[in-house]
Amino acid sequence: MIRREPWPLYDADAIVEDEITIVVQVNSRVRDRMLVPASLTAAEMQEMVMKDPKVLKLTEGKKIIKIIPVPGKLVNIVAK
Fold it and tell me: How far apart are CA 42 and CA 51, in angstroms?
């Protein structure tokens, strides 16, 4: 009988995500989304985004004023 079966145990490791989706913004406008490892630091996220071909095209010929990485969420690039 099903009522005599034990309740399933909780496994915290089963819900941990290996990859997350971050938003890439240029001048506060969403330009891309990237799938990156969840363990990336802010500096590693920034480095990965700056190598992206879409970002390179959007910032080509512009001076990058500031790069604002928010770990696990987004990278915002301010360029003029």
Answer: 15
